[in-house]
Amino acid sequence: MRKFTLIMVSLAILIVALGYTSCTTQNPGFAIYLADTGEVLLKNSDIKAFLSTENAFILNDGGVKRWNSFSTSTGSANIVLYNRDFVMKIGNEEICRGKIWSMLSSSSYEGIGLWGFIFPDGENSYIRLQEWDYGLLDSTVRSKIVEHFSGQHKLKTDY
Question: Residue 102's domain spans which residues?
């Protein structure tokens, strides 16, 4: 009987601990990952705002630093990341997949593309997202991004 009581108490403690852990684990929020390695390209805390009129992620200093960390001695992040597949997620939901594109290339890609270089624009630095076929972004993908950043008070409609 003592052994049974000890097992039941241990199970109760384990259940409470697991419940507490799952409640305190933060939602990963928005993130863009390299599809082949799972490495984070950009995450919510790297993004100052989403500029909905341009489908652009305005990066903060941490985001610029993270993006540029992919540079190597043989090339900038623009070259190193070119033609790599990415996955975009909000929480655990995958909202799209695409390729990273470079202006150094004359090839195109049918699908969603993430420009592999940072556009400096005055005090802001941003990376654009677009669908190569029409220059527009799929409305379902776009609405999920807009909804997320609106809820974070990080949605902008103009510079």
Answer: 27-156
What sign for the dihedral angle of Cα 106, 110, 116, 118? Answer: positive
For residue 38, give both structure tokens: 């799972």
Total domains in the fold of the chain: 1
SS3 29: coil
Tell me the pLDDT tens digit for each residue of 36-93: 999 999 999 999 999 998 889 999 999 999 998 888 766 677 678 888 999 999 999 9
In the beta sheet, which residues pair with residue 131? 112
Residue 97 CA from chain centroid, whole number: 11
In a domain, 4, yes or no: no
What pTM was computed for the model? 0.76
Residue 18, in any domain of the structure: no
Beta bridge partners of 51: 56, 156
SS3 148: helix
